[in-house]
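Check out a protein:
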Amino acid sequence: MLLVPRQLQRAGMTGSVPYYGGRFSPAQAYAASHPRGPSGPPPAPPPRADESLTALRTLRDEGVLSEEEYVDLVSRVWP
């Protein structure tokens, strides 16, 4: 017979972190000693397709893109 404290028998009580009778688990101690810093600003949303097409048209008209490159990039942006 295995003697287990009543707290450990309650699986839903602590989630995936083991319960050590009110003391920190090793994972909790590590998390407490290594706080996470701010993650920075959220990533910018991707540009809308019509904005991308306008930018590609501008690059084509300025001569930066050839006609073949323009057609290839438009097919990627606007399937």
Remarks:
- The chain has a mean pLDDT of 77.
- The helical segments are 6-9, 26-33, 49-62, 67-77.
- The longest helix spans residues 49-62.
- The radius of gyration is 28 Å.
